[in-house]
C-alpha cells in the first residue's frame, strides 16, 4: 500500500493546483495569463514542476480582507464582536418570550375548546337523562348518533 502513496500525493497536489488555478480570478494571477498556467499545470504536473510553480509564483497571495490572520480560525478568533452566551443574548431572550406568549395563547385556546366540548357533553348527558328513562345513552343512539335498527319505526304503507 505504501508504494502507491507517492503517486497519490503527486496526484493530489496536481488536482489541487489545477482546481486552485481554475477558481482564481484573472486579476490575482501573476506572471502569465491564466490559460498558460492551466497548461503548465497539466503538462508538467506529473513531475510536480507545474503545480509547484503555480503555488509558488502563479497566484498572488495576500492577507484576507479585514486582517486578523490568514486562516478562517484566526479571523474568527480575532473578530471584534465577542460570542455571547444564549442567556445573555437579548435577541435570544426576546425570541423566547415571544415563543412563550404564542405557546400560552395556544394553551388558552385549547383549554377553552376543551371546556366548550365538556359543556356540550354535559348538556347532552343531562338532556338524555331528563328526557329518557334516566340513564345516559338510553335514547337508542350509539356513539355515532344514529338510531339502531330495532329503534327505527316501521315505514308507513
Description:
It is a single chain. With 157 residues, this protein is mainly α. 55% of the residues lie in helices and 0% in strands. The protein has helices spanning 5-23, 34-43, 49-58, 72-77, 90-131. The longest helix is centred in the last third of the chain and has 42 residues, at 90-131. The chain is elongated and about 100 Å long. The N and C termini lie far apart (98 Å). The relative contact order is 0.06.
| Total of DSSP H or I helical runs spanning 4+ residues | 5
The mean pLDDT is 79
Shape summary: elongated
Described by strand count, sense and barrel closure, the largest sheet is: none
- How many beta-strand segments? 0
Order of helices and strands: HHHHH
Q: What share of residues are in beta strands?
A: under 5%
State the helicity in percent bands.
Answer: 55-70%
Calculate Rg over CA atoms.
40 Å
Report how far the terminal alpha carbons are from each other.
98 Å
Structural class: mainly alpha
